[in-house]
């Protein structure tokens, strides 16, 4: 049975392969560490912004899978660096012979599978952010006024911190605040005629104003913050309502958060792609080094040529061998079957 993808390795190529694998394994460990950092940072950002994402948004699965894939890649790189270095010394290599086999299985099946899954998620899930942020920010704006409602007491503080930290206002712009009641009814004067008129003029009995919370104001604006009567052209001297960006944050929080999280996901996807490529190269090299050394009894500097390969036989032969060695009961071949006993001859014995 011929091995799959055999490669003849004389003495010097074997040594250069081990040295190159030592460097490649450290690069894999660094790439795995980078993937861990990127996925951890994205996970921390999602933990902070979880209030503004819909509970059904599956985007949080990306950093979780990437965290596991980065950890496996980091471990594969560290163990691969130790094994490739030990292979250069016949006295240090024997303990590593038992490690390389499980490492190749775990790195290929576990690490490779996690990396492929993480890459697929990095390509597919960022599109779900649009809908998740749309729904989550809409809910956050609607509960801005509910400062005394259990479960929504911190909605106002969190949304104010979001707008101040990310320099955004509303969901898609400052006018989003015009369509919701963001002032708690507790702070409305029931004897004020303007308040009564606004409540009665709304079908749902909401107090709607053409104003925004203080967190929408741009502190870099040269004039004091203008929060109310933003639709009236002559309400404020030298203020043009058609150019509110001179006073308020220019962008909505949906676009700002979408760009921020998709940028982090893109960086993580790039780190995962580099890690995946390095892991494939490192595992292939370690497999060739392992099989080459097995042919030399674990001594890399023994004179002569040896052969490295991926599999000891073709796929068909491997499946046939596995079937023969499986749990199927072995039936004897025709030539192995015991001969049948001849029936006794009829008739009486002769006298």
From TrEMBL:
Chain ranges passing through the membrane: 21-44, 64-83, 103-125, 264-286
GO cellular component labels: photoreceptor inner segment; photoreceptor outer segment membrane
Region (Disordered): 325-351
SUPFAM superfamilies hit by this protein: Tetraspanin
InterPro entries in alphabetical order: Peripherin/rom-1, Peripherin/rom-1_CS, Peripherin_LEL, Tetraspanin/Peripherin, Tetraspanin_EC2_sf
Gene3D superfamilies per the UniProt record, alphabetical: Tetraspanin
Function: Essential for retina photoreceptor outer segment disk morphogenesis, may also play a role with ROM1 in the maintenance of outer segment disk structure. Required for the maintenance of retinal outer nuclear layer thickness. Required for the correct development and organization of the photoreceptor inner segment.
Assembly and oligomerization: Homodimer; disulfide-linked. Forms a homotetramer. Forms a heterotetramer with ROM1. Homotetramer and heterotetramer core complexes go on to form higher order complexes by formation of intermolecular disulfide bonds. Interacts with MREG. Interacts with STX3. Interacts with SNAP25.
Name of the molecule in the record: Peripherin-2
Species for this entry: Ailuropoda melanoleuca (Giant panda)
């Amino acid at each position: 049975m011929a091995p799959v993808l055999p490669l003849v390795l004389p003495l010097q190529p074997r040594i250069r392969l081990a040295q190159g694998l030592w460097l490649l394994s450290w690069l894999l460990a660094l790439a795995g560490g980078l993937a861990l950092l990127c996925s951890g940072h994205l996970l921390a950002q999602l933990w902070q912004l979880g209030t503004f994402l819909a509970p059904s948004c599956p985007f949080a699965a990306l950093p979780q899978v990437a965290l596991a894939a980065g950890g496996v890649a980091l471990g594969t790189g560290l163990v691969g660096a130790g094994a490739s270095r030990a292979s250069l010394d016949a006295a240090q290599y024997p303990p590593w012979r038992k490690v390389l086999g499980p490492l190749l299985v775990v790195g290929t099946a576990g690490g490779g599978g996690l990396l492929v899954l993480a890459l697929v998620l990095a390509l597919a899930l960022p599109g779900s952010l649009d809908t998740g942020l749309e729904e989550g920010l809409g809910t956050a704006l609607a509960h801005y006024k509910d400062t005394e409602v259990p479960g929504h007491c911190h909605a106002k503080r969190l949304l104010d911190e979001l707008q101040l930290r990310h320099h955004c206002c509303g969901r898609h712009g400052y006018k989003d605040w015009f369509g919701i009641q963001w002032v708690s009814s507790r702070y409305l004067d029931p004897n004020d005629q303007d308040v009564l008129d606004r409540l009665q003029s709304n079908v749902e009995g909401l107090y709607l104003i053409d104003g925004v919370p203080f967190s929408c104001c741009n502190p870099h604006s040269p004039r004091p913050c203008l929060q109310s009567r933003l639709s009236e052209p002559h309400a404020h001297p030298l203020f043009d309502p058609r150019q509110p960006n001179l006073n308020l944050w220019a962008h909505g929080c949906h676009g700002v958060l979408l760009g921020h999280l998709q940028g982090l996901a893109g960086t993580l996807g790039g780190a995962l792609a580099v890690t995946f490529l390095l892991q494939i190269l490192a595992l292939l090299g370690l497999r060739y080094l392992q099989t080459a050394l097995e042919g030399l009894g674990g001594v890399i500097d023994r004179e002569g040529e040896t052969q490295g390969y991926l599999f000891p036989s073709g796929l068909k032969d491997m499946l046939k061998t596995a079937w023969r060695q499986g749990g199927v009961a072995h039936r004897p071949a025709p030539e192995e079957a015991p001969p049948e006993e001849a029936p006794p001859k009829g008739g009486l014995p002769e006298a």
